[in-house]
Design a protein that fits this description.
This protein is mostly helical. It is built from nine helices and no strands. Helix 4 packs antiparallel against helix 5, helix 6 runs antiparallel to helix 7 and helix 7 runs antiparallel to helix 8.
Length: about 160
């Protein structure tokens, strides 16, 4: 995009990215980030990238979200928020196996997964239509040391009925 008579600032790019993500156009938002980085404007905080990954998930473009995370990994360290956003992008697309692989990678290599990670994993399982495996996965999570609340189990029970 061209800005006439205005030299776009980092803040202007951030606003444009967030607006396009909210509108459901993550590819356009991603183009803004690429353009800003070509001009030397760097987004040190991963929150802009997390917004794009989440937006890719909403429109079920998990491959693009995955590609963005891969690019980020080559340039810098990726934090848990990025991984959680990727798990949720997979979940929105019903890709449980990919969400589980990312979750397992978090368990092995990164800071411990959070409640958001677990929620994304369970959402992926439900979206993928694998309800029969839900209790098995919950038991696995409990065996790994995660505390699954009784309220969550009751909510899942009501959901399944």
């Amino acid at each position: 995009m061209r800005f006439y008579c205005v030299a776009p600032s980092k803040r202007l790019y951030e606003i444009m990215v967030l607006v396009y993500c909210r509108m459901g156009f993550p590819e356009t938002a991603h183009c803004f980030v690429d353009e800003a980085e070509r001009k030397g404007i760097l987004f040190d905080d991963n929150s802009i990238h997390v917004s794009i990954i989440e937006a890719y998930g909403v429109v079920k473009l998990w491959q693009k979200a995955e590609s963005l995370v891969g690019g980020l990994r080559m340039r810098r360290s990726v934090d848990r928020k990025v991984w959680n956003a990727l798990i949720h992008a997979y979940a929105a697309s019903g890709c449980y196996e990919r969400a589980r692989a990312t979750f397992n990678m978090l368990m092995r290599d990164c800071p411990a997964p959070t409640l958001e990670s677990i929620n994304g994993l369970l959402q992926a399982l439900i979206t993928d239509g694998r309800l029969d495996e839900l209790y098995v996965v919950i038991e696995e999570l409990q065996d790994m040391g995660f505390k699954i609340s009784l309220m969550l189990l009751l909510n899942l029970e009501m959901y399944l009925k």
